[in-house]
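ok so I'm stuck.
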Amino acid sequence: MRAGPVLALSLALLPLRVHAQSEVGLILNAIFQGLQTAEAIRRSVEDSRQFPAPPEEPPGDPIWNYQESSLVPAEVLHKGPYRNISGAMILSARQTPQGQVEMIFYRADGSVSRREFVRFDRRDGRRIDLDEKGNRTADGIIRNGLPEGDWQFYSADGKLAAETNMEAGRMTGPQILFNADGRQRAFNTLVDGRRQGPATLFHPDGSVSDNLNYADDKLDGSAQGWWPGGMPRYTATWKNGMLEGPSLEYFPSGAKRSEASYVLGKKDGIARTWGEDGVLLVEESWKDDQRNGLVREFYPDGRLKVETRGFRQGEFPPAPVPRWKTA
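replied:
not stuck anymore, here's the structure
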């Protein structure tokens, strides 16, 4: 085997700034963890002899240290493969029949983490990320080694899980998340990996579930939700990630279910709950997200059941039975 220089490379994935504030944030975190642009971590080595010589390498060979962004495909092709100080393969390259350089990056366990099909002089081309079993997890274009343009991300069973636009390695622009059956699950607008502007969630049948708005990855602005049949489910307003102002909920039939008001994310004022037949069931006074003042509960027929004022509480006598309910 030809003895070659050893490259000490440690690949680290850029963290994805995604909040677990909503279902979409959780999905994003699960799908895209570890799929953003890799960068090398510098290590300073003054004397190669302070480290044990890797297998099949002559003692005294220098150990070069690079940032991944400095890699030139032609140099990797002619000078590689590269190993870490323990002798494990971390990077190799070969020329393809199409006249490109295929750069192959390895994990510590020897499995291939990604492949790049690029030009000889710079890392322009296509990148494919792989899991430990060799299944594709991400696929897209790179420019100077950084993801650019439309990228596709895949689940463990090989199904398309997301499409997102990349700019210089950052998620910026439209993003679509998919269910296992291929239908859209969510649509987001991203700026530097953070949700900004309108977002839409979908029911499994493809109908719109929620219309939301974000500012700096926090819910901000009006929000509406619908039942699968198209009837309104709720309306609310968010400000800087907190509920603000009136919030209404509806039954699938369209009847009002509840209403409340919020100040800085805390329930404040009169809150009411109705049955689907329109009968008022609960009326409460709230202050700073705690019950404060009069609370009334009603029977389904509208009769007062319980009234609470501060610490005083009592059962009210049943109302006379209407004539039309007598036997």
